[in-house]
Design a protein that fits this description.
There is one protein chain. The protein is mainly alpha-helical and about 120 residues long. It has 3 helices and no strands. It is rod-shaped.
Length: about 120
């Protein structure tokens, strides 16, 4: 056999079996695999982003709830401080006595007691 016959037989075998088509199709298959991989990666990033957004929303809602709680507690504290101030004004000056004497009250009681003491 001479070289021309061998080369022509090899070329015929390659073209008959689709060997040349494989070389051209290889690029398309590689690109299809890359696109599928990018699609998978994109969906995974989207899922991560949605999870992080949900986490941020949950944290924002929790912070808003805590601010509302702080506001309610401040209002309650203001009310209690006002009650304490009023009760401090009505505190009896005499300790452990049966006759309660607040630091201020009706003028009659203080006036009568002043006359009794004189």
């Amino acid at each position: 056999m001479d070289w021309t016959t061998i080369i022509s037989a090899a070329i015929a075998a390659i073209s008959a079996g689709g060997g040349i088509g494989i070389f051209f199709d290889r690029k398309h298959k590689k690109r299809a695999a890359e696109l599928a991989n990018e699609s998978t990666v994109s969906s995974q990033w989207k899922e991560l982003f949605e999870r992080s957004e949900k986490k941020v929303d949950d944290q924002s809602n929790k912070i808003e709830g805590l601010y509302k709680t702080i506001g309610n507690m401040r209002s309650q504290l203001d009310g209690l401080a006002s009650q304490k101030a009023v009760l401090t004004l009505y505190k009896c000056c005499k300790v452990n006595c049966p006759e309660r004497e607040p630091p201020f009250g009706s003028q009659e009681k203080t006036h009568n007691k002043n006359h009794e003491q004189q």
